[in-house]
Amino acid sequence: MIEITMSENKEIKNEKLLSLIVPTYNMAALLPRCLESLVSAPSAADYLEVVVVNDGSTDSSLAIAQTWQEKYPNILQVIDKPNGNYGSTVNAALPKVQGRYVKIVDSDDSMDTEVLELFLQELHRLTAQGECPDIIHTPFVSIGPDNVLEVIRYNTMGKEPFDYGRICSLDEVLQQGYIRFFLIHALTYRTELLRAIDYRQMEGISYTDTEWSCYPTFWAKTILFLNLKLYLYNADREGQTMNPKVLLRSINQLTKLTDQMLAYYQQHIQDVTISDVRREWLKRYFENRMRILYKLYLLDMPRADFKAEDMEAFDQHYWPICQQMQFQFVLWPENKVLRIDYIRYWHKHHKRWPAWFECFNALVDRLARFVYVRVFRK
Prior knowledge:
With 378 residues, the protein is of the alpha/beta class. The protein contains 14 helices and 12 strands. The strands form 2 sheets. It has an 8-stranded mixed beta sheet, sandwiched between helices. The protein has a 4-stranded mixed beta sheet with strand order 5-12-7-8. Helix 10 (251-268) runs antiparallel to helix 11 (276-300) and helix 11 (276-300) runs antiparallel to helix 12. The relative contact order is 0.11.
């Protein structure tokens, strides 16, 4: 059983309220923009800590970070370490951060400086009132090709079910069933929560930000939604890990991460402190995780790259696990209009749907996406 307690309400003066972990690897061109957006907040010197973790960069990222450290010694510190990939940077920084709350900022992204100032003032208000929610959730802005902006909120079909500014029980939120909007760029955690659960990320592979979005929900008790578009996510950088082409080349990393997360689930899901609501939500979370992996093979992968023997090996590994854990999920097209289960079709025929149908489905997907973004994500 993991015991998680609130920190005592300490004197706010000279206390860092927010620590921002900035992992960087060969981001010399973008790192200054990121850091400028953070240290320029008027309250930064009083309330903000920025920890840049250089992950063995071979460009001038380390020198740039050290220059900024010399300029802003009360705000910024640098950790230099050998390359170990994303998770290792978070693991290196967490024991050292001093802020009451902690958030990750990728070095190719940035924050809205004015909104960051509002966020720091809100943390000050919460601390002064002795309120310390375990999770703070804020919308973020995804910046796509041609500078097209999309606001990502915790909602479904435009409905935001919780009052901004009110601390909620996390079970109250999770019983609504929404699972797709607990994303790394939206999440800020109470630092002592992460330390209480001995939080660590898998090292040596990418995509471990998924762990940041998952493991704390086993243990967190409270959540606060703030209507502050804090994070600016650069979704258009070439080579970015979430680029569909990069994602498809990284299936082996995704499966290693999934195995690790499933092991965590099996280890902790029977803990007596986990509520039935939390247990059910986490089950759905992992069902969705498996759905995404099957989708990479059966829907997203170009037909020229698809190998039935690779899919067969993947399915033989994961399908028995899904049955053992009583996961129940289907793989419908993203548009939800064509209710066809690709996994069931695979198990019956051991091949993908015909090419003509996938082309038709892609057209319906694009149309549904166009309507959804313009109607519900303004």
